[in-house]
Amino acid sequence: MLGLMQSQQLLISTLIDFADRHHGEAEVVSRRVEGDIHRSNYKQVAARSRQVANGLDRWNLGFGDRVATLAWNGYRHLELYFGISGSGRVVHTLNPRLHPDQIAWIVNHAEDQVLCFDLSFLPIVQAVHSRCRTVKRYIALCDENRLPADSGIPGLISYEAWIGAESSRYEWPDFEENCASSLCYTSGTTGNPKGVLYSHRSTVLHAMAGAFPDSLNLSARDSILPVVPMFHVNAWGIPYGAAMTGAKLVFPGPAMDGKSIYELLESEKVNFAAGVPTVWQMLLSHMQNANLRFSTLKRTVIGGSACPPAMMVAFNDVYGVEVLHAWGMTEMSPLGTVCSLKNKHLMQNAEDQRTVRLTQGRSIYGVDMKIVDDNGQELPWDGLAFGDLLVKGPWVCSEYFREEGSARLVDGWFNTGDVATIDADGYMHITDRSKDVIKSGGEWISSIDVENIAMAHPAVAMAACIGIKHPKWDERPIIAVMKKQGADVTREALLAFYDGKSAKWQIPDDVVFVDAIPLGGTGKMQKSKLREMLQDYRLPNT
Ligand code: ADP
């Protein structure tokens, strides 16, 4: 017997329709590539996303066809999110930080039909367009009078002229909620990038779970600044969650430096922001140097890589900002766990609470997880046993786009490639990425633990730990360190800094000072590049 409730498909168009009708005046503020601040709201975003949909219909773009974007966080990108997916096409967000050869490869693999780009990325498009075999239309996300003359890109038109010619009246089509809505390729440290193809249903459910109080806790009273890019995993689903709740959105555009972000946080009364540790490091450095305080920021979600304890202390104790540590991956839309406390933790002292907050948190409804040993046997949730972390749920990928059977599935569970512990309360702690763990004398050393200690040293801006081959111990850790500007520390002093903070055998064998630590397309440390950089390095006394 079926239930007798209306069956409405969970479509992305319902999110913008809702924001339009119920939160039409809620603001969408963007710093543009031009440098100015642009003000819009959900009513206008909704109207303009319907113009996008009409424009795509006029070109007879097929259902499920891919429309690529190469764009910063901004209102036009948001309009494309809703216009493309809402009309039944797939928005394919390209990561501009990838090498142009990789971008061309991805565009061809996805068979993108249209490519929309911010003018900052004109040089990339100029470099790749002749290789993009399937792209028939190029759209510059700018006003007509800013359209570059002689760009060399065939048929290039401006976004404003394109949608300006279209009506804002449009009836969103109704279709199966499992249809594809958006596509994002993982950077793929080995092999070719892999496409993760989200559906309307997965996106709406993920946004809903992301808005829960124990997840990101989004509401109509929030002013949210996602520093996390819309070009990578849909800015952690925040644009959808914001439309679902009527939260104000503040987009930083291309200006990710500490000063610009700080200015925007203050001028737009932002109370919630989301970013990866490397970006927050720039913000905190700026605040420390200029002796600034936040007047409205209350919460920030940090994820993408482990939040260094020193960063959590700075946010919480110095600036009064609550840090929500979160974990996920492209293949998970991305949210898997968020670290909010349970009632029992509220009785604990600050130090014990911090120990909990530094874990990656507990599952949000929808994502189940377990840890298993090398034989696939489930390990206990005792906070000690560590093993491969597997997940499943309606917003976890079941296979990669056009790579049948390629996903890392074990009996329906997706193998995340992370190694973790889970405690009795369900709090998961990432020990390491399985490929970054250092195996020393049969024991495992967490590269994250080694990095976190170095990051707590006042002279260290960034630190990355990698394993180096060792004749006796198999591998030994070393730490590559980028110093803070104007600060100094010696190798000996930094190694001495580990005393009492870590077991002797887990202390790195050496410190290598570097000018910069290579960062990947999403602002994470790229250890594969670092290993290449240090391929001729030899451990002392070997
Ligand atoms: P990419 O595929 O480009 O590496 P993802 O965002 O998909 O980017 O990366 C997912 C991985 O990032 C996870 O598997 C995990 O190793 C790491 N990660 C994400 N969040 C955290 C976190 N809070 N702590 C530690 N590692 C994290």
Structure report:
This protein has 17 helices and 26 strands. Strands 2-1-11-10-12-13-14-15-16 form a 9-stranded mixed beta sheet. A 7-stranded mixed beta sheet has the order 7-6-5-3-4-8-9, with helices on both faces. The model has no long low-confidence stretch (mean pLDDT 95). The protein is α/β, with parallel strands linked by helices and 542 residues long. Helix 2 crosses helix 3 (75-86) and helix 7 packs across helix 9 (238-245). Helices cover 29% and strands 25% of the residues. Among the domains are: 12-201, ANL, N-terminal domain (Rossmann fold, 3-Layer(aba) Sandwich); 369-433, Roll (Luciferase, domain 3); 438-533, GMP Synthetase, Chain A, domain 3 (2-Layer Sandwich), CATH 3.30.300. Bound molecules: adenosine-5'-diphosphate. The site of adenosine-5'-diphosphate (ADP) has 21 residues, from strand 14, strand 20 and strand 21.
Count of DSSP-assigned helices: 17
Bound ions, cofactors and other small molecules, one mention each: adenosine-5'-diphosphate
The largest β sheet comes out as: 9 strands, mixed
Question: Could you name the CATH homologous superfamily of the domain at 12-201?
Answer: ANL, N-terminal domain
CATH topology of the domain at 12-201: Rossmann fold
CATH A-level architecture of the domain at 12-201: 3-Layer(aba) Sandwich
CATH top level of the domain at 12-201 is: Alpha Beta
Share of helix, binned: 25-40%
What is the average per-residue confidence, as pLDDT, rounded to a whole number? 95
Compute the CA-based radius of gyration: 23 Å
Structural class per helix/strand content?
alpha/beta
Strand residues, percent: 15-25%
